[in-house]
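Run log // design_07
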C-alpha cells in the first residue's frame, strides 16, 4: 500500500482523469476499502469473474482504480 500511496500523490496532482490498472495481489474490496481510494475520491472497478486461478479457490486480483468522475462512464470490465 505504500507504493500505491506514493502513486496516489502523483495522480492527485496531475489534474487530469486517470485509470490505474494492475494485478494488485489483493482482492478489490481490500483496495476499495483503503485510504488510497478514498483520499483520491476514486472508485474501484473490477471484473465480476475471477482473474487468478491458483491451486486453491480462484480470486480476483486484477482490477482498476479510476478517478471519480470517470468511473461513471464505465459499463463493465471483462476478465
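design_07 sequence
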Amino acid at each position: 500500500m505504500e507504493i500505491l500511496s506514493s502513486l496516489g500523490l502523483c495522480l492527485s496532482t496531475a489534474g487530469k482523469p486517470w485509470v490505474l490498472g494492475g494485478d494488485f495481489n489483493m482482492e478489490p474490496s481490500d483496495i476499495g476499502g483503503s485510504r488510497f481510494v478514498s483520499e483520491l475520491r476514486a472508485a474501484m472497478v473490477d471484473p465480476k469473474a475471477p482473474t487468478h486461478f491458483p491451486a486453491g479457490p480462484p480470486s480476483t486480483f486484477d482490477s482498476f482504480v479510476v478517478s471519480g468522475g470517470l468511473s461513471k462512464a464505465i459499463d463493465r470490465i471483462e476478465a
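Residues 49 and 73 are 20 Å apart (CA to CA).
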